[in-house]
Design a protein that fits this description.
Number of strands: 26
Low-confidence stretches: 1-28
Helix content: under 10%
Largest sheet: 4 strands, antiparallel
Structural class: mainly beta
Number of helices: 1
Strand order of the largest sheet: 1-2-3-4
Oligomer: single chain
């Protein structure tokens, strides 16, 4: 029988059937195609442009551009002048020795710049279960060896901005000294930091604690022996330096001196009292010891302080404070202190603590006779700045 559908109707029907009737398709079955190999991962440190506390920056005095920074809980770093970056040096610290990320002091060897030492330990109270250690490196911090100490160190304890507690004899670099907290006194190594012994002749382990009644032990710990400074002019290469100055957390007796290579010690005569010497920096060419002092150990407090200049040849003391402690304008102590080794009459000090509107740095080019500030008030509270600051990395 012939279809009664017209030619056009048959075309429409065929089109409709094509939409609903499945069509058999030949498929070749085999192994699934391999996905493209992923690109390899590149791992590196996540760079943080700012933040945290850097209590000390230490420059090597033999090699220009070689500088180290210590942090209270974030390890130690070396400056790379070629890249303009700080290289982390303690990423190897693990879970069991986590306290070694607290660096209370650093020392870079003035004879062999490849050698660097770190006094490591986070807390002196129960918060850190481990004793401190001296970390020593012969490749600028790329690798480390550790010497355990019989007491704790406190990279994140009060007073951590003082120092440096760890120092290398500039004439005989196998000899190092360490100022210890918690009443443990002064310690010495004669084998490049491998072994340590207490300097039993040193008379004062310190007595200052921010809050002796603190039950946690954090603010009640004796801040101890706080810095060591050698006078390289009193020794010859290969022989022990004879004159050594040591700072102590004791407001009545804050500076001691040895003139026989650490055999005997005596309180430095005529020294200022009522304050703690946060820093002791020596100009061996001119023969002056500079002190930055504050009424507390810091780092979060400090209401009064002075800067002093001691003539090592005559024993004369001169107060050279930019703003002296008996001035109504002094509402801070002094802590940061450094001198220009090429031009020792140029020195800088920092306030401890001037919270508002900012920290104040003072600079002198005449040995402390006169000072300029890093900023001045113009029309209060506006300021005139003597510096520019690049904050582009941390907008």
């Amino acid at each position: 029988m012939r279809s009664t559908l017209s030619r056009s109707s048959r075309r429409l029907l065929a089109s409709a059937l094509a939409l609903v009737v499945p069509v058999a398709v030949a498929v070749t079955v085999g192994a699934p195609a391999s996905p493209a190999a992923p690109a390899p991962y590149t791992w590196r440190n996540a760079e943080i442009g700012g933040g945290g506390f850097v209590p000390g920056i230490v420059f090597n005095q033999a090699e220009p551009g070689l500088a180290y920074a210590r942090t209270d809980i974030g390890g130690a770093y070396r400056w790379n002048p070629a890249t303009g970056r700080w290289l982390p040096l303690l990423d190897s610290v693990g879970w069991t020795d986590w306290g070694h990320n607290g660096v209370v002091s650093l020392a870079t060897d003035p004879v062999d710049p490849n050698r660097v030492y770190a006094a490591a330990g986070m807390y002196t109270n129960s918060w850190d279960p481990n004793n401190g250690a001296i970390l020593r490196s012969t490749d600028r911090g790329a690798t480390w060896q550790s010497s355990a100490l019989p007491f704790k160190l406190g990279g994140n304890m009060p007073g951590r901005g003082m120092g440096e507690r760890l120092a290398i004899d500039p004439n005989r670099d196998s000899v190092l000294y360490l100022g210890a907290p918690s009443g443990n006194g002064l310690w010495r190594s004669t084998d490049s930091g491998v072994t340590w012994a207490k300097v039993t002749a040193f008379p004062n382990p310190g007595n200052y604690a921010p809050d002796p009644s603190d039950p946690t032990g954090y603010s009640s710990d004796n801040e101890g022996v706080t810095w060591v400074t050698f006078d390289p002019s009193t020794g010859t290469r290969g022989n022990t330096t004879q004159t050594i100055y040591v700072g102590v957390a004791d407001k009545a007796n804050t500076v001691y001196r040895s003139t026989d290579g650490g055999t005997t010690w005596a309180r430095l005569a005529g020294q200022p009292t009522g304050f703690l010497a946060h820093k002791g920096v020596l100009d061996s060419a001119g023969g002056y010891l500079y002190l930055a002092t504050s009424d507390t150990g810091g780092p979060y407090d400090g209401a009064k302080g002075d800067v002093w200049k001691y003539a090592t040849k005559t024993g004369a003391w001169t107060r050279i404070s930019p703003i002296p402690s008996d001035s109504a304008d002094d509402y801070f102590g002094y802590s940061g202190l450094t001198i220009d080794r090429q031009h020792p009459n140029t020195l800088m000090v920092a306030t401890q603590v001037s919270w508002w509107p900012d920290v104040i740095f003072f600079r002198s080019t005449d040995g402390g006779a006169t000072w300029t500030r890093i900023w001045d008030f113009s029309s209060y509270p506006d300021r005139t700045l003597r510096y520019t600051q690049d904050i582009s990395s941390v907008p």
